[in-house]
């Protein structure tokens, strides 16, 4: 044991050191060596280290030591606050051992704690209480619990980086100031994954008071490789077995091989859709890989966690649900499927591997396309260098202020305004809150009868609605209307969906996950708040349509992708091939030659096409027909802000709406013919950068997105009754009624904070107008510009097409005719247009759903199905009809559309339907690709 090791544990008393020996802690971990000395000295401390590196014991050993040395208090001695109930479960299992050996009581309290247990805790408080931010809010209002909280000497906030960037954290920061009023001060300990600007998170933790920062250098302990698989002969065979494309098969095969090469592997994906899609492929291959995400039931999640921990599962497919410290045993490798989008995400995820013995964390990023690969390379390099994004703290959330004022007056009774104001502004996120703004919030609460504001006495009193408000608003997680989900066949209730899901996603025909099963939406009844669904009988052949909110790529990461392009451009222009450029990039980035070569081929195609290269310092504006693409390496938020400015101002010029799609590297516009390329250039060169915020806000005033947020914010102010929901008041009326209020101001602030980057966008316009940022135009689409069309999908589209072509294909197929034939009774046959086909075709004669969709000239197939003869031709036609009917039965109208295309039979239709995608346009683009393939090879078939 080194001198440093000895120094760490010698700060602890003999009772705790004896327990350490019994527990087998002979050598401190890195965080323990760094943080136990200041923690033992009672300093406020932020401990930054990867999951699984002993952070919990780092924080709690000095806390236990103080409680043992000073003697257990009458009330609570320490609070351990975690953001997830699942972490409560893990923490209790880990901390109870120490409590038993140190004669200290450890207990858990959250929303599911029984009334008996709560009463017992109030009468005889445990020495250490594990709880959630929301339960702490409730505890601050109970008279006996407040007495017990007065003895708190230590508060540990787990996963503080998660809370710092959320309204839950803003609420907790005020709660800690209210706790401080009761206890007279306490030691604050924060446990965090790697985060940028640690001092800012420290100030969030302490309310701006002094804070020691103890940080493990994670980047130097991370070994990450970026790999994009090359399609092999095995993948061609595997694709047939999985009914998917060879590219997807190559992803499945590489992940399978990586899992086989390690003992226990976490496979992180960015969306629940991808988790289910890959999970269905692994199920088809009978591989021991489980799925873990938020749509699964608690029981299902615990089951796969235990099976992985026991070794029954070799791999676990998971989303951000597994980023936090849920204990799943030892992990020796982490796979990230597609770019993790952010450095913090990569470090949190890769950091789950190998840290139980201070080992290097090893991981592989499996990428799928050039943008994805370059982005992953930039993130991997930045992770090694410790260039991490800061936590985006919510500054001055007015709905949190509205939430806390009733809690303060309910717990304290009659309160002077300045005292309540000081309690709120003592929290770091509210340090700059103006008293005038605070009083505006207070006046709104008074109007809504949540509290009584006596302006003459300058005091706040409780009202008839205070008690009900406080206990109905313990959480800052939006309380959305709940839609019941009913099986349309049996009318049984199978679960619920939240309002955001229904408003932003749900429509007939879409597929989603609930309780680990997949369902197709048949009907939505907004009045009754019911979604009627039918089960997907063959989940291996389906993927959910809903992907949730996309993880935004930061400005800095997108900029580095632009820098990589800038480095490659002169080499490619002087004749160096993609392979040579890839070899040079290998000196800086962690990827094999094949992966780098494959990504650089995109840049080589750009040069070969004679198109300018978009870089961090060059914008490329390209146009074809109505489609305009501004190639801009500025990340999601900046591009979204610039896109809204362009869309709004060009729409004003044209007198009609302008379509907008953005990704981290492109702003794609669908403009009327009256808008010229010079108009787009003019907006960028002439718009005052100082007007960006105003322009965007004016555009937001008519948006459903703002209305939805406004309905949630106004509920926090008591302005809308919870049971009304935003659906009872039109968006236009809601926006008009609340404009100019604190609720409106907060809804706008939230949109700008979470989705936009006004300062960055303004700076881009300044650089364009000063000549510091080059802007060039190009007639026609470029290889890089076109690749944005598949940015949301798992695969490159085989042959890209612009929006006008896709619209033409969609309309043509909708107006094509098909024959529908019931293969069960064979009596019902009808010729109709595709657009008139029901979502779930059904025979009116016998009720069967086995309906074949045939070409309008396929009467001979109908006769073959109806005939008893079994010659070879009739057998082939009959088999084709039955395969068509099986596809329609499983996929409904989507299958009819696919088989109505030129030269697309049941086999190709199945491939199109089962392909991973997140966009309806991609569905029609794949149909178009198959039609073109048929046109090229038609002479071989005719």
From TrEMBL:
Looking at the record, the residues that make up the Helicase C-terminal domain are 254-399
Short name of one Pfam family for this protein?
A: DEAD
Q: Which PROSITE patterns match?
A: DEAH_ATP_HELICASE, HELICASE_ATP_BIND_1, HELICASE_CTER
Keyword annotations of the record = ATP-binding, DNA damage, DNA repair, DNA-binding, Helicase, Hydrolase, Isomerase, Nucleotide-binding
Q: Which InterPro entries match?
A: ATP-dep_Helicase, DEAD/DEAH_box_helicase_dom, DNA/RNA_helicase_DEAH_CS, Helicase_ATP-bd, Helicase_C-like, Lhr-like, Lhr-like_DEAD/DEAH_assoc, Lhr_WH_dom
Q: Which residues form a coiled coil?
A: none
CDD domains in the record: DEXHc_LHR-like
Q: Which SUPFAM superfamilies match?
A: P-loop containing nucleoside triphosphate hydrolases
Q: Which Gene3D superfamilies match?
A: P-loop containing nucleotide triphosphate hydrolases (3.40.50.300)
Which Gene Ontology BP terms does the record give? Answer: DNA repair
Top-level taxon in the UniProt lineage? Archaea
Gene Ontology MF terms in the entry: ATP binding; ATP hydrolysis activity; catalytic activity, acting on DNA; DNA binding; helicase activity
Q: Where are the transmembrane segments?
A: none
Where does the record place the Helicase ATP-binding domain? 36-213
Family per UniProt? Belongs to the Lhr helicase family. Lhr-Core subfamily.
What name does the UniProt record give this protein?
DEAD/DEAH box helicase
Origin organism is Natrarchaeobius chitinivorans
